[in-house]
Amino acid sequence: MNNGAQGYVQETEELYSYEFQPLSEFLLVKPKVLESEVKTDFGLIVEQKRSVVDRPCSGDVLAIGKKASEETGVQVGHYAIWVSTKGIDLKFKDGIFVLLDYQSLIGYKKV
């Protein structure tokens, strides 16, 4: 599995995210966007360098495979949390998403 934490984004620009159905053990999530800039109390804007440590590790589940759903109880619409070093970053026509193996999940917020 190519790890998005290493800066690799798999191009799938011929599809929209809603057209993609993960296979049995996987789920597709829209990661929570991390702020790359911080504004100080004095109004200065400081750009932060990105690292594996601050890679997105939570987001909304958009699609889920059958086994992933059965094993975890996670459903489309749940807010999921996963190990930040796991997953493949996929670029669709409508943005960048993360494809995860269900075993990478730490937990989720029920709706």
- Total beta strand runs: 9
* Widest β-sheet, arrangement of strands: 1-7-8-2-5-6-9
Question: What portion of residues belong to β-strands?
Answer: 35-45%
Evaluate the radius of gyration. Answer: 15 Å
Task: Tell me the name of the CATH homologous superfamily.
Answer: GroES chaperonin
Report the structural category: mainly beta
Helix content: under 10%
Shape: globular
Give a concise summary.
The chain has 111 residues and is mainly β. Helix content is 6%, strand content 39%.
How would you portray this structure in words?
With 111 residues, the protein is mainly beta. The chain has one helix and nine strands. Strand 7 and strand 8 (95-101) form a beta hairpin. The model is unreliable at 1-6 (pLDDT under 50).
Descriptive key words:
10 Kd Chaperonin, Protein Cpn10, Chain O; 9 strands; 111 residues; 1 helix; mainly beta; single chain; disordered N terminus; 7-stranded mixed sheet; two-stranded antiparallel sheet; globular
Give the SSE layout.
Blueprint lengths: L8 E3 L14 E6 L5 E3 L5 E3 L10 E7 L1 H7 L6 E4 L5 E5 L2 E7 L3 E5 L2
